[in-house]
Amino acid sequence: MTAVAYVRVAPGPILPPPLARRGAIGWLRANLFSSWPSTGVTLLLLAFCLWTLPDLIAWATTRAVWRAPDGALCRAHQDGACWAFVADKLDYFRYGSYPQSERWRVDVVEGVGAVLIVWLLWPRAPRRGFGAILFFVVYPIVGFVLLRGVPSLGLPLVDTQLWGGIFVSLLTALVGIVFSLPLGVLLALGRRSRLPIVRAASVVFIEGVRGVPFIAVLYMAENMLPLFLPPGWIPDRFIPPLVGAALFAAAYLAEEVRGGLQTLPRGQYEGAMALGLSYWRLMGLVILPQALTLVIPGLVNNFIGLFKDTTLVSSVGMVDFLAAIDNGLKDAVWSGPTLLATGYAFAALFYFVFCYAMSRYSAAIERRLAPGRRQ
């Protein structure tokens, strides 16, 4: 008897994955209950959340004091947060001692900066090159003129001694991030240079800065920067911390960029040189775009660290966000045992929102660039 075999000449229909592998059930199985150890850790964390979150949420909402003219009501209700304190001091937390009649200038600078940042970070935004010119060239000049003031233009001078609060923290972080990245790239290229003097200077700077804490760099910038300036010219008290933040972050970014440069195969360099590209065109058009793409997580991690490290500028006399909260806690009208926890909870929420936004944007850019990286 002859056996009959059937050979399919067309592919069969694509069937959906089983219910246990897709949707919410599939996500739970893959991420939270993929194995017995994973299930145990998930259950322990769930039990911890059920134990702590109800009281924490009640402390921040139902038991909290939302409105009060002073701290008396908060002292009477010590089992909840005192958000009335944050509401009363919110303007000081935002602007420091900046004159109230001139605070619109801070709002304008922050608003324009936010628009330009969104313009540059939005991948599909039109004319991003023009936006980059506005952000890196025009915006710093206009922002300084508005914040500091020019009497001839009808803008009264506002001494940097009066600057403080959230806008100082944002300004310090923005200046540090903007200037540290190009400086870090140059240091990474210098460390890989074939010129012994350039390579040695880059190594000394990178290892020297990375070998000391950030607060030491701030003190060094505060006391040593005037030595490199012309005689008789005393820099504004706001400049040394900004320089110190940029230099400190640049040393760490340089190592991130150098790691990205080392991961590229030598064929990328050889192919670019075969096309007759000069060194700077080779780096700018071929090597650096690939290297920076590979180290996006590390770069953003350093940016997040720099953003949080701006709290240390208070050690050299600047009134950043945390320093403004500490100053607000010294108000005898609002004294109370719950104010410290409330103030720092508000600060934690502020820093979490910005740091989480940076991390999510980094993840989105990685996903967008991943298909091209796999080709």
The CATH topology name of the domain at 180-318 reads: MetI-like fold
Share of β-strand residues: under 5%
Q: Whole-number average pLDDT?
A: 85
Order of helices and strands: HHHHHHHHHHHHHHH
Describe the structure in your own words.
It is a single chain. With 375 residues, the protein is mainly α. Among the domains are: 36-88 and 329-375, no CATH class; 180-318, Orthogonal Bundle (MetI-like fold), CATH 1.10.3720.10. It is 67% helix and 0% strand. The chain has helices at residues 23-31, 36-60, 72-76, 83-95, 103-121, 128-148, 166-191, 196-210, 214-224, 239-263, 266-274, 279-294, 296-309, 321-329, 339-374. The mean pLDDT is 85.
List the helices and strands and how they pair.
Blueprint: H1 23-31, H2 36-60, H3 72-76, H4 83-95, H5 103-121, H6 128-148, H7 166-191, H8 196-210, H9 214-224, H10 239-263, H11 266-274, H12 279-294, H13 296-309, H14 321-329, H15 339-374
What's this, in brief?
The protein is mostly helical and 375 residues long. 67% of the residues lie in helices and 0% in strands.
Structure keywords:
single chain; 375 residues; mainly alpha; MetI-like fold; 15 helices; 67% helix; globular
